[in-house]
Amino acid sequence: MRILFLGDVVGRTGRDAVVKRLPGLREQLRIDMAVVNAENASHGFGLSPEMARAFFAAGADVITLGNHAWDRKEIIPYIAETPRLLRPMNFPPGTPGAGSVVVVLRGGHRVLVMTVMGRLFMDALDCPFRATAVELSKHRIGVNCAAVIIDVHAEATSEKMAFGHSFDGQASLIVGTHTHCPSADHQILPGGTAFQSEVGMCGDYDSVIGMQKEVAAARFWRKMPGERLSPAEGECTLCGTFVEVDDITGLAKRIEPLRVGGRLSQTMPAV
Amino acid sequence: MRILFLGDVVGRTGRDAVVKRLPGLREQLRIDMAVVNAENASHGFGLSPEMARAFFAAGADVITLGNHAWDRKEIIPYIAETPRLLRPMNFPPGTPGAGSVVVVLRGGHRVLVMTVMGRLFMDALDCPFRATAVELSKHRIGVNCAAVIIDVHAEATSEKMAFGHSFDGQASLIVGTHTHCPSADHQILPGGTAFQSEVGMCGDYDSVIGMQKEVAAARFWRKMPGERLSPAEGECTLCGTFVEVDDITGLAKRIEPLRVGGRLSQTMPAV
Amino acid sequence: MRILFLGDVVGRTGRDAVVKRLPGLREQLRIDMAVVNAENASHGFGLSPEMARAFFAAGADVITLGNHAWDRKEIIPYIAETPRLLRPMNFPPGTPGAGSVVVVLRGGHRVLVMTVMGRLFMDALDCPFRATAVELSKHRIGVNCAAVIIDVHAEATSEKMAFGHSFDGQASLIVGTHTHCPSADHQILPGGTAFQSEVGMCGDYDSVIGMQKEVAAARFWRKMPGERLSPAEGECTLCGTFVEVDDITGLAKRIEPLRVGGRLSQTMPAV
Amino acid sequence: MRILFLGDVVGRTGRDAVVKRLPGLREQLRIDMAVVNAENASHGFGLSPEMARAFFAAGADVITLGNHAWDRKEIIPYIAETPRLLRPMNFPPGTPGAGSVVVVLRGGHRVLVMTVMGRLFMDALDCPFRATAVELSKHRIGVNCAAVIIDVHAEATSEKMAFGHSFDGQASLIVGTHTHCPSADHQILPGGTAFQSEVGMCGDYDSVIGMQKEVAAARFWRKMPGERLSPAEGECTLCGTFVEVDDITGLAKRIEPLRVGGRLSQTMPAV
Ligand SMILES: [Fe+2]
Ligand SMILES: [Fe+2]
Ligand SMILES: [Fe+2]
Ligand SMILES: [Fe+2]
Ligand SMILES: [Fe+2]
Ligand SMILES: [Fe+2]
Ligand SMILES: [Fe+2]
Ligand SMILES: [Fe+2]
User: Fold this and answer.
1) What is the pLDDT of residues D52-86, one digit of tens each?
2) Are C152 and C174 contacting, i.e. CB atoms less than 8 angstroms apart?
3) What is the dihedral of CA D166, D172, D176, D180, to 10 degrees?
4) Size of interface A-B (CB pairs under 8 A)
5) Which residue of chain C has the CA closest to D205?
6) Are A257 and B184 in contact (CB under 8 A)?
7) Would the keyword Metal-binding turn up in this protein's UniProt record (chains A, B, C, D) (predicted)?
8) Are D70 and D41 in contact (CB under 8 A)?
9) I need a labelling partner for A164 at 20 to 30 A (CA). Which of B185, B210, C54, D78 fits?
């Protein structure tokens, strides 16, 4: 099985690039399963139902969100009826939506996708490690599901690496989101799980994490109310992670980053 | 001019790799100027004078430190007499050592190296942006110095990107340290400054930011005193950034990452 | 029923004062139930079993701990066999000890004591609000227990006040610990629960939260390793909260602060 | 000289109480100098020029602000022309307004008032300790000014106590603001400076730090966008600190808290 994970979509330039290029990427890389983190799609803050529909239509099997999940409030009723749109699993009980979903692919393969949010330098939440352990106790990779994909939406690399090792061997891919800067530490961990601490954003990299650089940088210099942050509008670099999964074990055979368009160095997984 | 910057050296595996490979890398890549961040060289915490001497002997022109600067107290008298060993410039007035140095290379070129520490999710310090602006007001790249290298030791990618744009055109290289995960966002910013939000560590990547994974991961699961953290001892991946600088302007012509040895995908700048 | 709650005991001066004065206070104020937070009893960091025994012998019915619970490791086996010694209830499952206990007083009255730790500006923990709601669902004040006492060990006054209102009417007393500065906001909330956002420490107030002032203050001026913090040794001010509880409802009839000895303004509940 | 300091005014109930009662308090307590922290006067967020004028008219000699300084943007031009309206002194250079002012009282006495903001659990700012030392180097209590009043707007009691001791003997009064819960640790420090770690708010204490309790408490239970916070509207408790200053030395002879109206226990300085 071949998996493509695209990181935080930021603003119009990110949305347009994902919608335009995802169909071709699916074909070119013979992707079986695509996941897109879209928490910043709407002007940098949240996701509208209409945008979610566009991503699904373009080939996203599952969409994940993070700390910006509720920035667009229209998403609340929509997520309640859209099982393939996920918010962090370790949000409090009673939160609308879910943090995991089992998707059945065309060939009948079952794939578990889940997302949790880290706590270091982030919001006060229930333990993402324990939440993940509970969820994984219900699914066995290579037994009752063909692949497991976990989006760990977190700030600190220490928490992400600790997470990766904690569930090494129980997932096909554990990939970080949230910092918007792609990491070059992709590897297959000793237990067989593909890991990358940060997939990076789909947005303009002549920016401050996707937002216009002058206004965003001024916030670090001054202690005054400034202009509203808005997304940078230059050409998007699509940042993603590609994983090839063993059909028997569900573990990873290969992980490669993908960076297409825009300012960053370009790379495509070998086909 | 050709610059090599190596990220946070962690523990024995990192030290040994730097000492063993830096001389060859200098030769192979025809490096004029090498900088090494060594804040985690001593069992993950700090740097001893003896280790610093070994790095200088192996070809480091300048060594930088970060939040772990003082973990080994012997460094305090040593830094006072070692101008090429830097601690963050925005530490309070009166702190031993300095945060910047002008190195004169064999050919007579003057190179300014400086390091500052970020504040987002880090210690309470004076403004790293203003400290940098003050320092840069005394040096003009392409006029009275041939190159400017800035190590921005920070947690948040937003602060690092804001920092890069704030001084774009005034430095040859602005490179982040501290998170220990190499980023793949290296680029030449519009004003001519080479930028990479994180160079990554020189350490074992089968770990939690260089430390043994079982003990480090347990800290995220439990709220109890655990075993002491100690560095992972597997093979080191040397993580670095290579920059080629224009001899006239001091701005960057090329930036490429370097990853040698260990678990991460290997890459070497083209010679 | 009459309850006395004494705040964080800091160092020798705090220990000596509690051991010396608690018996007399119990008698003078006709206390039925005394609780002591002792997380800083041992040189400012943690509690030894021997010290715990001394507090129990002096009249503490229950001892609570906070973020410093495990600073003295000998407490770990001891807490496992000492139900009246509590650590925060919202520590992860599997943590030694418990966060609540039902004490049966001489007259047969059952009193529930519990402690939780806040999350704002503190460690990543499970939700203290939900943990409390679960625990309180098993006990009904005025029905199957005569009083409920909750120690909310937290930094932010917003979290403490939110906690107080969330459980107003379900507890006799909700009192904050951890900041070491007694608050003057004691009141009976509309639902009948006595509330004080911070009881204050039992320690020397010519200090920085109980620790010697020169060394502790220097940490705010400098970014260098300094001398070890150690407790200030001047005369202790015992800081406590006194509550009189209605025998039928278990709700509060009166709340008064107590400050005895040392530098702070002196106050004793009317008898 | 007699000083009255009133803590963070929250919303309409706080504004109305200050405007209505300050004139009488000045007279009754024979106040020479009144300072009011008003950062939450406008619906809990910021201060409008019109409200500032009302406080000045009611007898405030100086008004201080804190982290909410700029929540109402109309205050920016107004502060630039209003020397007696202060924002934290350790905001970055170039910030409108000032952080200190020397007020000349009717009898000719000069009083220095200043305010700084803490950094622990707060924004990244320049060092409040060093900023204060620089300012105090220009003024000598008992020599060229009759009194010095410092508002330390901070979260952590450790930072506030460290601040108090650092400048003990150089100020008449050092009083904390920001947490909105009055402390009962008022004392005259060994060097002669009156100190109280937190003056408390002027607002409704049936609330979460002055805001309506249901909405504010829900934020600790849930991870969802909720209703807007708005100030509680019950009866205000005016919380203040009264200090009597020695006419020769400028140091404190007496410090007493003041709590008038509303739910908290009532106390008035002896006349
Ligand atoms: Fe994001
Ligand atoms: Fe995020
Ligand atoms: Fe480091
Ligand atoms: Fe660091
Ligand atoms: Fe404590
Ligand atoms: Fe504590
Ligand atoms: Fe306030
Ligand atoms: Fe404030």
Assistant:
1) 999 999 999 999 999 999 999 999 999 999 999 99
2) yes
3) 170
4) 133
5) C185
6) yes
7) yes
8) no
9) B185
Query: Which one of D43, D68, D165, D186 is the catalytic residue?
Result: D68
ipTM of the complex: 0.97
What is the residue type of C268? Answer: M
Count CB atoms within 10 A of the CB of residue D107.
Answer: 9
- Closest ligand (CA of B154): 4
Pick A217's closest partner by Cβ from B162, B180, B220: B162
Q: What is the Cα C191 distance to its own chain's centre?
A: 22
Cα-to-centroid distance, C8 and ligand 5 (Å): 5
CB spacing of D221 vs A125 below 8 angstroms: no
Joined tokens for residue B227:
């075993």
Within 13 A of B241's CA, how many CA atoms are on the CB side?
A: 37
The string of pLDDT tens digits covering residues B88-107 is 999 999 999 999 999 999 88
Tell me the H-state helices in chain A: 11-28, 49-58, 75-80, 128-136, 157-166, 213-221
Instruction: Look up residue D256 and give its two tokens.
Output: 């007493």
For residue B125, pLDDT over 90 is answered with yes
- Structural domain spans, chain B: 2-260
D243: number of CA atoms within 13 Å, CB side?
32
Distance spanning both ends of chain B, measured CA to CA:
13
- Cα(D193)–Cα(A144) distance, rounded to whole angstroms? 71
Residues D232, D201 contacting (CB under 8 angstroms):
no
Task: Output the pLDDT for position A107.
Answer: 87
Q: Chain A closest CA to D37's CA: distance in Å?
A: 19
**What chain C residue is nearest to A91 in terms of C-alpha separation?**
C127
Are the C-beta atoms of C11 and C233 separated by less than 8 Å?
A: yes
Query: How many contacts, defined by CB atoms under 8 Å, are there between B and D?
Result: 18
Nearest to D67 by CA among D50, D44, D51: D44
pLDDT, tens digit, for every residue of A162-203? 999 999 999 999 999 999 999 999 999 999 999 999 999 999
What is the C-alpha separation between C93 and C89, in angstroms, rounded? 9
Q: Is the separation of the CB atoms in D179 and D173 below 8 Å?
A: no
Query: pTM of the predicted model, to two decimals?
Result: 0.97
The residue to which tokens 């909720």 are assigned? D226
| Count of all residues that appear for chain B in the document | 271
The alpha helices in B168-261, defined as continuous H runs, are: 213-221
Is D39 labelled a binding residue?
yes
- Please provide the distance, in angstroms rounded to a whole number, between the alpha carbons at the two ends of chain C: 13
**pLDDT less than 70: residues of chain C:** none
Q: Which residue has the tokens 């439990």?
A: B222
Chain D residues in contact with B92 by the CB 8 A cut-off are 127, 130
Chains that touch A (3 or more CB pairs under 8 A): B, C, D
- Residue D85 in contact with residue D79, Cβ under 8 Å? yes
- On whether the CB atoms of residues C49 and C56 are closer than 8 A, the answer is no
Of B91, B125, B224, the CB nearest to C70: B224
- The CATH architecture one would assign to domain A2-260 is 4-Layer Sandwich (3.60)
CB atoms near residue A229 (< 10 Å): 16
B166/chain A closest Cα distance in angstroms: 7
* C231: CB partners within 8 A, 6+ apart: C10, C11, C12, C13, C14, C40, C43, C44, C203, C204, C207, C210, C211, C212
Nearest CA-CA partner of D166 in D127, D126, D122, D132 = D132
Neighbours of chain B (3+ CB pairs under 8 A): A, C, D
Output the CA D69–ligand 7 centroid distance in Å.
10
Give the residue carrying structure tokens 């923990």: C125
Query: Long-range CB contacts (< 8 A, 24+ apart) of A91-98?
Result: A91/A117, A91/A125, A91/A126, A91/D223, A92/A125, A92/A126, A92/C127, A92/C130, A92/D221, A92/D222, A92/D223, A93/C130, A94/D222, A95/D222, A95/D223, A95/D224, A96/D224, A97/A69
